[in-house]
Specification:
With 204 residues, the chain is an alpha/beta fold. The chain has a single domain (3-201), classed as Aldolase class I (TIM Barrel, Alpha-Beta Barrel). It has helices at 3-6, 61-68, 88-96, 132-135, 147-156, 174-187, 197-201, and strands spanning 9-19, 29-35, 58-60, 74-79, 100-105, 117-120, 138-143, 164-169, 191-193. Strands 3-1-2-4-5-6-7-8-9 form a nine-stranded mixed β-sheet. Helix 2 packs parallel to helix 3 (88-96). GO terms for molecular function: 4 iron, 4 sulfur cluster binding; carbon-nitrogen lyase activity; magnesium ion binding; S-adenosyl-L-methionine binding. This is 7-carboxy-7-deazaguanine synthase. Its EC number is 4.3.99.3. Homodimer.
Amino acid sequence: MDQVEAGTMLPLMEAFYTIQGEGFHKGTAAYFIRVGGCDVGCHWCDVKESWNATLHPPTGIDEIVTEARRYSNTIVITGGEPLTWDMGPLTSSLKQAGIAIHIETSGAYPLTGQWDWICLSPKKNMLPVGDIHKNAHELKVIVYNKHDLKFAEEQAAQVSPECMLYLQPEWSVREKVTPMIVDYVMENPRWRVSLQTHKYLNIP
């Protein structure tokens, strides 16, 4: 097994310190680690350059952790689809450094790693696997059309009662779907609206 398959090296696309723009932790400072590799294939994905893992250099987790410690006490692992890879070695090293670790994932691959916060953002074309629904702290469904509201309820039925529920307009159709989401949340107040506030702030 090579080091990438073992999780001791990861195809690192980018890492950056910014403000979390979405979901429960929006507005808080966090260091994002974007891991390359994803075959979920959302047509509206705004980081399609992350899909091909071979375009992003395998980077040792020690190097990733050393850099992360310089910036923040909160790390967000995102992608691509980070669970394509074994997250155990990276999260173990981050935990030893005393860092809170969040993940943003579609759940399309089995859950690995140790997490303080799991944001599950399921996709219709590759549904979540394993027990990630019951482990999710936050369910965030991207809404591109009205049919996504039905999908959102199907996914919400599988998470724990404590899980936070968010509906987020897909950016390219936000003007069309945001009023629909607002109406839905007002009628179904267990849901909340999530916006990509980092895009409004013009930050990464």
